[in-house]
Automatic annotation (TrEMBL):
<keyword id="KW-0472">Membrane</keyword>
<feature type="domain" description="Sugar phosphate transporter">
    <location>
        <begin position="43"/>
        <end position="338"/>
    </location>
</feature>
<feature type="region of interest" description="Disordered">
    <location>
        <begin position="1"/>
        <end position="29"/>
    </location>
</feature>
<keyword id="KW-1133">Transmembrane helix</keyword>
<feature type="transmembrane region" description="Helical">
    <location>
        <begin position="70"/>
        <end position="92"/>
    </location>
</feature>
<feature type="transmembrane region" description="Helical">
    <location>
        <begin position="112"/>
        <end position="130"/>
    </location>
</feature>
<feature type="transmembrane region" description="Helical">
    <location>
        <begin position="39"/>
        <end position="58"/>
    </location>
</feature>
<feature type="transmembrane region" description="Helical">
    <location>
        <begin position="321"/>
        <end position="338"/>
    </location>
</feature>
<feature type="transmembrane region" description="Helical">
    <location>
        <begin position="193"/>
        <end position="217"/>
    </location>
</feature>
<feature type="region of interest" description="Disordered">
    <location>
        <begin position="355"/>
        <end position="389"/>
    </location>
</feature>
<dbReference type="Pfam" id="PF03151">
    <property type="entry name" value="TPT"/>
</dbReference>
<feature type="transmembrane region" description="Helical">
    <location>
        <begin position="268"/>
        <end position="287"/>
    </location>
</feature>
<feature type="transmembrane region" description="Helical">
    <location>
        <begin position="229"/>
        <end position="248"/>
    </location>
</feature>
<dbReference type="InterPro" id="IPR004853">
    <property type="entry name" value="Sugar_P_trans_dom"/>
</dbReference>
<feature type="compositionally biased region" description="Basic and acidic residues">
    <location>
        <begin position="376"/>
        <end position="389"/>
    </location>
</feature>
<feature type="transmembrane region" description="Helical">
    <location>
        <begin position="136"/>
        <end position="158"/>
    </location>
</feature>
<dbReference type="InterPro" id="IPR050186">
    <property type="entry name" value="TPT_transporter"/>
</dbReference>
């Protein structure tokens, strides 16, 4: 009889009891359908892409002087932050849909909030302020092309702050992305120096925020999803935005109101715009939680192409052949960067599995050897004496 035949009676003896009737074990859950998992992943990607698309186009519609003509980006961002902070408080503290970090994780103490969350909130305020302001001066398509510089900014900061290692291949990849964006900028028909400066500042602020999240929060064991992130970050972001709003936009708002050039904000427009912004954060949580951050990066590249096509065909922004060639080069660089990250993640996972196998293998060999030794070898007699411990 084989070894497998000897294990079945033992299992039956363990599960049976002479004093009570045997309790049948519950049936194992059915394996998840591969097709269903694939369809759900595509659904999560589609929801995130649709909401991200909607928020970008909606912000452009509100801020553009040729469309809704409400060119007050700081005020718009403050409305978003107030709405998101209120809904996040409702979900976390009232409905308790999401829990705040607590032991065994690193709890959010006042000292940790002041040293970690406040700098991140300040950078988030700058990023939103500059990026929304750029929509007044630049086309949607060109802004998406400039956003391709995000991996370059993140990698450069990570190397300088020693959270990532310098690699020559990655440097060449970053140079290719930068060259592609430079070609796209050269071919831009509606090039505006101030608008480009605003978008580059937005990229720099967002890249710094992403790197600081890793340094100030992740390395300390604080894990925040988009809802708890908004719960902590949105209020301080709102406070930081009041400074440039008071100095820059409040005088303009007063002047526009005095001259009769300021239309009263449409509650429906700004309400649905804020709701889309909040729903986008929920979609990020859903997409990253059910797939991965790398999936979101890859989907983001596809979304950028769709936005460029939308800007070209619907908004009637000018997209030149040089634009497309330059962004095509940058797109290939970003695609290779995402591919390299995927390969690195696979290699790291393979190393982890190999290390786990190496740790458990000696114990398995020892147990197998003990089963093979005859009982009289325990005292070191005969040929097995050299195995004595």
């Amino acid at each position: 009889m084989g070894a497998g035949d000897d294990t079945k009676p033992a299992a039956m003896e363990v599960t049976s009891s002479p004093s009570s009737s045997p309790t049948p074990a519950p049936p194992p859950p059915p394996p998840p359908s591969v097709l269903r998992s694939v369809l759900l992943s595509y659904a999560y990607v589609g929801i995130w892409m649709s909401l991200s698309f909607a928020v970008i186009v909606y912000n452009k519609y509100i801020l553009d002087p040729k469309l809704y003509n409400w060119p007050f980006p700081i005020s718009l961002t403050m409305i978003h932050m107030a709405f998101c902070a209120s809904l996040a408080f409702l979900l976390v503290r009232v409905l308790r849909v999401v829990d705040v970090p607590s032991p065994p994780q690193q709890a959010m103490t006042p000292r940790l909030y002041a040293s970690s969350v406040l700098p991140i909130g300040a950078l988030y305020a700058l990023s939103l302020w500059f990026s929304n302001s750029a929509y007044i001066y630049l086309s949607v398509s060109f802004i998406q092309m400039l956003k391709a510089l995000m991996p370059v900014a993140v990698y450069s900061l990570a190397v300088n702050l020693r959270t990532d290692a310098f690699r020559r291949a990655t440097l060449l990849n970053m140079l290719a992305i930068s060259a592609g964006v430079a070609v796209a900028a050269y071919g831009e028909a509606r090039f505006d120096v101030f608008g480009v400066a605003l978008q580059l500042l937005a990229v720099a602020a967002e890249a710094t925020r992403l790197v600081l999240i890793q340094i100030l929060l992740t390395s300390k064991g604080v894990s925040l999803n988009p809802i708890t992130s908004l719960y902590y970050v949105a209020p301080c972001c709102l406070v930081f935005l009041t400074i440039p709003w008071y100095a820059i936009e409040l005088p303009r708002l007063r002047a526009a109101a005095a001259g009769g050039r300021l239309a009263s904000p449409d509650v429906f427009v700004f309400g649905t715009n804020s709701l889309c912004a909040f729903a986008l954060n929920l979609a990020v949580f859903l997409l990253v939680g059910k797939t991965s951050a790398l999936t979101m990066n890859v989907a983001g590249v596809v979304k950028d192409w769709l936005l460029i096509a939308f800007s070209w065909t619907v908004i009637k922004d000018t997209v030149t052949p040089v634009n497309l060639v330059g962004y095509g080069i940058a797109f290939l660089g970003v695609a290779y960067y995402n591919h390299a990250k995927l390969q690195a993640l696979k290699a790291k996972e393979a190393e982890r599995k190999a290390a786990a196998t190496a740790v458990t293998k000696p114990d398995d060999d020892t147990e197998a050897g003990a089963r093979l030794l005859p009982p009289d070898n325990k005292d070191g007699a005969g040929d097995g004496g050299h195995h004595k411990n």
